[in-house]
């Protein structure tokens, strides 16, 4: 009984929003893993590896200042605009599967965005420090606001700080979808992928993009929870 009372004390119904967010993120991440695994079994007809595909796309896009390197980890592939390094995980770099080629091509899509000064990517890079500070400071600011006999101005400032994290994730969406779109166009036009392989790669990249949608949804639900709990003035008691 003590345990249940304790649980009810710390439990409020808005926790459901956080749980729904967690479930959405888990489903999205398991979907991307399953989709990758599935299409990792299909060897590409052209026989190129992820690294080959990356070098091909960079060359086709007139990018000569980006290096391709292999890194450890599972789906740790990324493009670093500052160092101009495109890192491919072991599963991607040496594999000739359509999934690996798709992932490598997606990262190249970011390198192309960087070269072409794709503006959502610029905004995204500019927001990163703000979003990091915002998501770290939000909860302490709200807590201090509550402790200072419910200082609504401070609490609102905390909620605004948290919303920067959501803003970052919303700006991430067009950047990610656009990188995949560029990747698919170059791969299919250049003949690296056959007409049967293009839809397979599209499925892998769509699954990957859905994890970003899930992350944004989950952050939105957390923000909604903060607004429901702390958003209004507490004059109703
Ligand atoms: Zn990406």
From TrEMBL:
Q: Which residues cross the membrane?
A: 15-33, 126-148, 154-175, 204-228
The superkingdom listed in its UniProt entry is: Bacteria
What InterPro entries has UniProt attached to this entry?
Zn_peptidase_2
Keywords on record? Membrane, Transmembrane, Transmembrane helix
**What is the name listed in the Swiss-Prot or TrEMBL entry for this protein?**
Peptidase
Q: Does the keyword Transmembrane helix apply?
A: yes
High-level lineage: Bacteria, Bacillati, Bacillota, Bacilli, Lactobacillales
From which organism does this entry originate? Loigolactobacillus backii
Does the keyword section mention Transmembrane? yes
């Amino acid at each position: 009984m003590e345990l249940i009372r304790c649980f009810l004390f710390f439990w409020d119904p808005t926790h459901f929003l956080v749980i729904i967010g967690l479930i959405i993120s888990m489903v999205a991440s398991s979907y991307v893993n399953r989709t990758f695994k599935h299409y990792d079994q299909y060897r590409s007809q052209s026989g190129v590896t992820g690294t080959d595909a990356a070098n091909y796309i960079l060359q086709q896009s007139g990018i000569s200042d980006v290096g391709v390197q292999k890194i450890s980890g599972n789906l740790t592939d990324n493009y670093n605009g500052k160092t101009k390094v495109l890192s491919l995980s072991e599963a991607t770099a040496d594999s000739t599967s359509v999934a690996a080629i798709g992932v490598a091509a997606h990262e190249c899509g970011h390198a192309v965005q960087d070269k072409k000064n794709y503006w959502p990517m610029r905004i995204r890079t500019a927001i990163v420090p703000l979003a990091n500070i915002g998501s770290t400071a939000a909860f302490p600011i709200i807590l201090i606001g509550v402790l200072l006999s419910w200082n609504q101005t401070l609490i609102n400032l905390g909620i605004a700080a948290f919303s920067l994290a959501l803003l970052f994730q919303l700006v991430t969406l067009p950047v990610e979808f656009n990188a995949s779109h560029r990747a698919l166009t170059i791969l299919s036009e250049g003949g690296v992928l056959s007409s049967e392989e293009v839809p397979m790669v599209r499925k892998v990249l769509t699954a990957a993009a859905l994890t970003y949608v899930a992350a944004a949804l989950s952050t939105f639900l957390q923000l909604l929870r903060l607004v429901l709990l702390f958003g209004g003035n507490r004059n109703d008691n």
